[in-house]
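Inputs:
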Amino acid sequence: MSAFLDHLPQFWQGLVVTLQLTAASFAGAAVVGLVITALRVSPVRVLRGIGTAYVETFQNLPLLVLLVLAVFGLPEIGVKAGLLETAIVVIALYEAAYLAEALRSGVNAVAAGQGEAARALGLTFSQSLRHVVLPQALRTVIQPIGNIFIALTMNTSLAAAVGVVELTATANRVNLLEAQPIPIFVGAGLAYALIAACAGFVTGRLERRLVMIR
Amino acid sequence: MSDLLFDEPGPRARRRIRIATVAGAIVVLGVVALAVRQFAANGQLDADRWQPYATWPMWRYLLDGLAATALAAVVSAALAMAGGLALALGRLSRRRWIRLPSAAYVEVVRTVPALLLVYIVLFALPRYGLDLPLFWKLVVPLAVSNAAAFAEIFRAGILSVPRGQTEAGLAVGLTHGRTMRMIVLPQAARRVLPSMVSQSVGLLKDTSLGFVVSYAELLYSGKVLATYNGLLIQTYIIVALVYLVVNASLSKLARVLEARQPRRRLTRA
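Outputs:
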């Protein structure tokens, strides 16, 4: 246990980086995911194609491949960015595909009459999406989005494999120093479980507050 | 295709659609042009940097990596499915001492990153005298983490079989075990097939953790190759394309299976 307590500041630092990665990339993924969803339900065939191609590409590539390609490949074509920033952008783009897929199933679950009513009132495509369809779609997919958030938290650990010193990398480094794997890895695992538990709690609350009983 | 949000376009809408089409095409072409410019400006498009990938030895090396990826994926999928089935049945068991540990396993493993499990197998277990061969250092953590995912898929499938089926099985005098084996599981299996295939895509993606374990699967082979020939970007792009082709085919298979489901949930076209 002392191995864990002696390195508490390091673990705290690692946890902060993990939280930064999680929060920033989830925010980015939410924005990109919304845009992709809008593209995929738009009446313009080319835009739909772009949205579908985006989702297909990012869902079928391993995140680690994308991270390796971005972190080691981008400098080779003259794009220089910080390690943490690169990791955040890559994770955001990757998870955006999953968010877009979840949101689209939510849009499909909104009753057809809602879209028809919005058009009958004279709302344009983007108005009816913004004011009528998406607010209802979001409520039906709170649970899936919570699961994506948890998966994203787990996926931020892959940044350790390209050199970001977050929680998993910290655990590994401290273990190499102290050689007391059990307290160190259990501690790190508990921290992840805690984040996931918080996410589960928040989505549970949100769902009870927002879900509409039809 | 969702046509929830628009009607048959009239003349003005058609004009707007044409404008959006052109704008979308310009944005895509712009991004591609920017990428090509960056590649060209840094000499990454030179023919001699791509030439090696027109030769067989490079491809053979990468395809060997792909074979290792497939082997790791198949073995860990088999283990994870077997474990997942046991956990799903355990979670639905009538006995509490089976139900609780199964539920605990699924809930705990779901919230631990696969990479952390890999590090445990790599660095923690050898300290306790359990130094697995390289292949198993990749396969064991993947099987452990994916067993939880498969367990949830199987449990959902078993629960989706109507209760009447179990009741009918018990009514004709089958035991609980036989009802599960002969009546419920065959029906559940058909329903979970598409989810199993898409979870297998996720598992195949996870085998790229071989990069960390230094097990010579596709991504690690790419790393070795890039160190050897110095063609970093080209190698990783080829590796990414191979992953894309393999996984996209599997995802396509999942969609075909989904479409063939006899009584699928009605979704708006």
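Remarks. Residues 2-210 of chain A form a domain with the MetI-like fold fold (CATH 1.10.3720.10). Chain A touches chain B through 64 residues (CB under 8 Å).
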